[in-house]
Amino acid sequence: EFLKEDRLTRDERADFINTISECSKTLLNTLNDILDISKLEEGKLEISNINFDLHAVLENSSNILNRMAKNKGLSLDVQVESDVPQHIHGDPHRMQQIVMNLMNNAIKFTSKGGVTVHCAYLKEQDPAVIRVEVRDTGIGISEKNMKKLFKGFTQADDSIARKFGGTGLGLSIAKDLLHLMDGRVGVNSVLGEGSTFWFEIPYMAPIEAGDDGEEENINIGPMKILLAEDNKVNQQVAMRLLNNKGHTVSIADDGETVVRMAQEEEFDMILMDMNMPVMSGIDATQEIRDLGGTYKTLPIIALTANVVDEYVKKCYDAGMNAHVAKPFSPKELYQVMARFAPEHALNAAAQTTNNIDAEDEKLTENLREIKKQLGAEYLDNLIQNSLTESARLLKAAQDAFSDGDNDALERAAHDLKNVSGLINLEDTSHFAKVVETLCRTNELTALPDIMAILKRDGEREIRRMERERTTSH
To answer: Structure pTM?
Structure first.
């Protein structure tokens, strides 16, 4: 739309359109992967946690959809209460995805009036939450049809898809994303009078710089790296990241070239893209490993946009040491590189760990940080309270299973996963997550066996930690 209004030369217009076209194809493929609901159902989609500007996310969402609203003659307003923190800790991409889905729906189903996005900080709640409401003056939803919302491939009634389009996946995805963020979503509506879709997420204060293990804490001495990557943009990004850390980088555009260059020169590490012309990264890795000698131990790290378990397994089966999902963060890349280049790694975080006393070695990184910031007494109370709560939630899960109440079982398992994970009850947290996933996906055949394991291992881990605490005190 903006290109239509600007006075551009023919060549400039062609360049703009070609760039937008190629980027749009890439973006569409990325979105198709992200929005694949099966990934959510199978628990294969992770939520990131970084500091971000909440106000900016809401304003950006409005700016993106403002033209769509104006074309329908609608107003689109964002109202952020004065006490709402500007910066919070969480996932800005998922936050914007949820907000834009609700805003897009509101605009789509409103023919006159407008849409208002309202954000509040409910600090009186425990824990405090951020609440976002998207209000419209549209067609509204009947009480009967509201019960159908938030289910995959479902819309309020059959005429909706014919009149307005859409797959019926948006609200289901929003619900699942909020579930991963420990949030909740709901709707209030009167048929013919408009709707208010709302969601709440726990408020997480931004983490001060340096507290979250920035990549500057990971120093890897200069290495000679072979970068196997055929995409020019990816080459530029990786080259800049690696060169800035003092590494020497050679580039191979295809798998066959990787194998040849690995034999012609001595490299400390190979960063291997999976999908390359002539020969794939997997085939190239297998050929390098088959060379024997030092090629058997040469660190090879996969760079892949495909994070499906079966595909990742192929990377390891081919002889790769690790994989980094694209698009990767510098921190993540440096961390993996440091793990497989011990003679070059000067990891400040690892050096700090060497100074941790024997008592603290039993703590998770999060608990050590809590002890550092809030003191040993607070940590002791936190662990005891978490143990008590884990025992309560374990019993609640067993009772819900006995009663056949899968919704209550899913809630108890979700809470148990988080509470037990905090104090490093690894088996309890793991099997609670499995139970939660089985309930959410309605795959109940394996539930009795998993519940038996959860009960056995959960009670064992809780008893063990209680004994250790009694002895230490």
So the answer is: 0.43
